[in-house]
Amino acid sequence: MDIRTNFATMNPNAVLLLTGTVNPNGMVLTEIQDTEVRKRQYIESIKFWLKKVSFPIVFVENSNNDLSDYFSNEIGSGKIEILYFNGNNYDKRLGKGLGELNCIEYATLNSSIIKNAGFVFKVTGRYKVINFHTFLSDYESHPDVDIMVDFKWNLTFCDSRFFGFKPSFVADYFSSYKETLNDSTGVYLEHALSKAALTAIANTYTFRPLITLPRIEGYSASSGTQYNSSYLHWFRYKFEYWIKYRSFGLGNLPWI
What we know:
Blueprint: E1 2-4, E2 14-20, H1 35-52, E3 57-61, H2 72-76, E4 80-84, H3 96-110, H4 112-115, E5 119-124, E6 128-129, H5 132-141, E7 147-149, E8 151-152, E9 157-158, E10 162-165, H6 168-172, H7 189-202, E11 207-209, E12 216-217, H8 231-248
Parallel strand pairs: 2-3, 2-5, 3-4, 7-11
Antiparallel strand pairs: 1-4, 5-10, 6-12, 7-10, 8-9
């Protein structure tokens, strides 16, 4: 375990959390296993985010791979905090969702940046959200929001690639569903996120749906296929998402 950062001059309200697993080590339902390919994708994504956002970034990696040497200048300036730990050494049949939650838990407990933050935007580490500033602007217009997620499938599923939360959400709600995760039996991180979010909302959390459809660029770890991030593809589904957002809010159009 190690933590690398220089955050003394920063007191952020919102931070970006990127999660990573350089070495999946035979994880079930994970097509992209090549560690060099995955490392390259993480480095490329981190560089994108360093240019994209002006507030601090936390990158947390759960297979004990330290990427600090690639970002020594950014660490020194306090732009990014790099955490890594051994959190991927469990039964691989349980799947990568458990490792993802391990990352989120570890970051909220150990990140000096997150400890001083009021809100966290979480993105799966190899992905780029091209229209991220739309969501940031919406958060800045509603700074009292506690959780921002995209509900699907009659409120049973939330997209875990990109969502927002106040740091206490993890310990108070999300971690409670950790023992239920099992990709091999079809209980995914997205199911746990939905249950945790609904419980938090029932207990007075202020909720906002994602204001538009995230335009995600990257490769699916599960299938190895590239997401279509073209503007035309995104715009087509953006209209359907707008109907859901305006008319249904909580995701009663399951295919969006």
